[in-house]
What we know:
The protein is of the alpha/beta class and 230 residues long. 29% of the residues lie in helices and 25% in strands.
Amino acid sequence: MRFWAVIPAAGIGARMGVDRPKQYLTLAGRTVLEHSIGPLLAHPAIAAAVVAIRQDDPWWPTLTLRNDARVHTCAGGTERADSVRNALRHLLERGAHNDDWVLVHDAARPCLLAEDLERLIETLKDEHIGGLLAVPVTDTVKRAAGDGRVETTLPRTGLWRAATPQMFRFGPLVHALEVATAEGLLVTDESMAMEHMGHRPLLVASSARNLKITHPSDLPIAERYLECSL
Ligand code: C5P
């Protein structure tokens, strides 16, 4: 049984409004993508990582990461789930087995702590299906109506914000993503595809610093976190 990392890095990050995809912005001396993949490559259990990148991506070739023998690339897809499926196909060619573990981690999450990764792996490694890092919701959550007014307040007990890595067995994950695609279900994370198959992924508490860079205001926060751990 082996552990593989998959890094979907083929997004364009339109909400950032900058000249390059957010995973190639530099924070604390390295690109967001390098920070994101760092803890996974540093973990002794990870055999190799597949990074899904856009065709004609001009930034990837500038990273020294591409010289790392454990780092491979595959073509990105239209949606995040398509990028992940391509990476899983690549792993199949590299001999991945159904029982192997796959850890899917967003290229835009540069502040993953080694201890959170370690807890995820230790908690899940004897599970059948797997689970994900997630952050318990602490704010009161409102659902908005179309006019921007509150429609309802959701009870926050039991609510979590899904993060990554999401760790699932290779075979069941491939199957779940294939079913989702065949049914036209847009899954925004791997857990959603697994849930659709009737599985119940385990939630593993993550530090809230494991944020996904989405808006420009996230950058200084992520940079501060990264500088604190240098
Ligand atoms: O856009 P969002 O922040 O939700 O993307 C999450 C992750 O999925 C990012 O690392 C992004 O690069 C990746 N992605 C991808 N292929 C796509 C869209 C997003 O690999 N088609």
